[in-house]
Specification:
The protein is of the alpha+beta class and 367 residues long. It folds into two domains: 197 residues, 2-Layer Sandwich (Fructose-1,6-Bisphosphatase, Chain A, domain 1); 129 residues, D-Maltodextrin-Binding Protein, domain 2. Helix content is 31%, strand content 19%. The chain contains ten helices and 15 strands. The strands form three sheets. An eight-stranded mixed beta sheet has the order 2-1-3-4-5-6-7-8, sandwiched between helices. A five-stranded mixed beta sheet has the order 10-9-11-15-13, with helices on both faces. A two-stranded antiparallel ribbon has the order 12-14. A hairpin with a 5-residue loop joins strand 6 and strand 7. Helix 2 packs antiparallel against helix 3 and helix 5 crosses helix 8. The chain starts with 8 loop residues before the first helix and ends in a 9-residue tail after the last helix. The structure holds 2,5-anhydro-1,6-di-O-phosphono-D-glucitol (AHG) and manganese (II) ion (2 copies).
């Protein structure tokens, strides 16, 4: 039996760098530090209860609330520390921002500062960690404003207010049955599987493409009564199946771990919706723009899929705050475009359409 020759993550990054002969190597070094943080998190997660990493950091749940007003898990805190500790020393970063830190993280004065900024959700889906369901880390790399690079000053929140199109790299690590790293450096999407023997991410999915069409959708249906009309219409049409306007049956999935849903969609297509709704009008969506929607959006677009607010392309949105929430729809292109169309069509138009009046599939008090 001959062993299959596979590229490591390092080799992949070196190959990618050949496109930019003058590149310093800082960018690759940063991504390898991120990968190291992910490997460390994967080990901690794998020990679970044996490693005393489950549950909350303090016995009083009320004292473990993060800036999002959400309950922090021990692993949220541990993962955040792995990210900061393993990436701050390299000299590549001007600063960082994380779901778990209210304010931007400053590279200590004793260390060198660099030209990139790292934004991350250290552990997405962490509400699932105690029940042993797949979780992951999501990250995005931005270039620091020139004036920050030149002056070496502390970063402020506004330095991170860059639209998703400005991202230089985005990716996630998935801590599931296997640990994977899925990455884009702006030239397609590549997936790596952690070889536990070598401790190396090996290139196993060289050019991930999201199928354009799908019959699988993911949404938290318990929020149905808070959905806006276009979302209600879309889901109702899916549920109507073969006899309905879509004339085909759909399948539904909800892992409650967005990173795991993103991975499923990258592997076999599908559409994910966490739309803006009326559940809590102070929150324009559940998921966060800078470290959830934008990196997943870049991956989707680089894999031939699409990411949107429901109304406009996600990557064009100008951020206005560090922990800003936003409605998020991503996945197979034709479905995301359909959802955008539904948002663009005036509601009156739907009423005029005999499909919606006669079948009355989508009519409710909102119409
Ligand atoms: P996080 O664990 O980083 O706070 O994010 C959890 C997110 C996302 O992963 C998931 O899709 C969503 O929250 C689940 O929301 P519901 O609780 O409404 O299902
Ligand atoms: Mn998250
Ligand atoms: Mn998180």
């Amino acid at each position: 039996m001959t062993t299959r020759r596979r590229f490591t993550l390092t080799q992949y990054l070196i190959e990618q760098r050949r496109r930019f002969p003058s590149a310093s190597g800082d960018f690759n070094a940063l991504l390898l530090d991120v990968a190291l943080a992910c490997k460390a998190i994967a080990r901690s997660v794998a020990f679970g209860e044996l490693g005393s990493v489950l549950g909350h950091p303090t016995p009083e749940v009320a004292t473990s609330i993060n800036v999002q007003g959400e309950v922090q898990k021990k692993m949220d805190v541990i993962s955040n520390e792995y990210f900061t500790q393993m990436t701050e020393w390299g000299g590549h970063l001007a600063g960082m921002a994380s779901e778990e830190m209210d304010e931007p993280y400053q590279i200590p004065d004793t260390l060198q500062r660099g030209k990139y900024m790292l934004v991350f959700d250290p552990l997405d889906g962490s509400s699932n960690i105690d029940v042993n369901v797949t979780v992951g880390s999501i990250f995005s790399v931005l270039r620091a404003p020139q004036e920050v690079i030149d002056s070496g000053r502390d970063v402020v929140a506004a330095d991170f207010f860059q639209s998703g199109t400005q991202q230089l790299a985005a990716g996630y690590a998935l801590y599931g049955p296997t640990t994977m790293l899925v990455l884009t450096v702006g030239n397609g999407v590549a997936g790596f599987t952690l070889d536990p023997n070598l401790g190396q991410f090996m290139l196993t999915h060289p050019d991930i493409q999201v199928p354009t069409d799908t019959n699988e959708f993911a949404i938290n249906a318990s929020n149905a009564r808070f959905w806006e009309a276009p979302v209600k219409r879309y889901v109702d049409e899916c549920l109507a199946g073969k006899p309905g306007p879509r004339a085909k049956d759909f399948n539904m999935r909800w892992i409650a771990s967005m990173v795991a849903e993103a991975h499923r969609i990258l592997m076999r297509g599908g559409v994910f919706l966490y739309p803006r709704d009326t559940k809590d009008t102070t929150k324009p969506g559940r998921l966060r723009l800078l470290y959830e929607a934008n990196p997943i959006g870049m991956l989707m677009e680089q894999a031939g899929g699409r990411a949107s607010t429901g109304e406009v392309p996600m990557l064009g949105v100008q951020p206005t705050s560090l922990h800003q929430r936003i409605g998020l729809v991503f996945g197979s292109k034709n479905e995301v475009e359909r959802i955008e169309r539904y948002h663009a069509e005036p509601i009156k138009h739907e009423l005029d359409n005999p499909l919606f009046t006669e079948r009355s599939l989508f009519r409710d008090s909102h119409y």
